[in-house]
Amino acid sequence: MVVIGLTGGIACGKSAVAALLAERGVAVVDADHGAREVVAPGSDGLAAVVEAFGEGVLSPDGTLDRKRLGERVFGDEAARRRLNGILHPRIAQWSAERFMELAAQGAALVIYEAALLVENGAHEALGGLVVVTARPEVQRARLMARDGIDAAAAQARIDAQWPLEKKVAVATEVIDNSGDREALQAQVEALAARLCSRAGVI
After folding, report:
1. What is residue 153's DSSP assignment?
2. How many domains would you assign to the chain?
3. What is the pTM of this model?
4. Fewest Cβ atoms nearer than 10 Å: which of 41, 50, 111, 123?
5. The 27-30 sheet, strands edge to edge
6. Range of the domain at 30
7. pLDDT (tens digit, 9 = 90+) per residue, 88-139?
8. For the segment 24-66, what is each residue's pLDDT rounded down to a tens digit?
9. Is 86 buried (19+), middle (13-18) or exposed (0-12) by CB count in 10 A?
């Protein structure tokens, strides 16, 4: 089974690429989904987050308030490291279980969609890496529209991430999502054909 990483900059559209690949029958394991699963109500992950950051990160219904937690760790490197220390091992275990399930089902090609593949070095163990990019002004505008924030706040979030150039430098495939939906679909169509050919999928 070939596992290909899929990552990109914030608001560049990696989830859109993952969805288009899934539409073409490619199996996708989404680390963001895993990140929600490992802190579901009643999980040891949620208990560990509450122990580290207090009851204030919970919503009234007992679920994790991801926005409030994000505000707690944004700009606080020690807090972010502490949170990552709780989440990353659990997400890795969740992902490994999904890979084993897919392998048992006979999947030849799997896309692993995750935000921090390059930052944590996980891309080095994969069979390839797709990086989704967009021009800086497009990235900023999408982030402003998506999160309802101003240009300065959007730029601050972009600046808090690794530069896209660092991710592109280790990519085996690059998708430029600066254009419209049709342009993205055409690129993903060609990408899916290349990846399936590499994995021996007809």
Report:
1. H
2. 1
3. 0.89
4. 41
5. 27-30, 109-113, 2-8, 129-133, 173-176
6. 2-198
7. 999 999 999 999 999 999 999 999 999 989 998 999 999 999 999 999 999 9
8. 999 999 999 999 999 999 999 999 999 999 999 999 999 999 9
9. buried
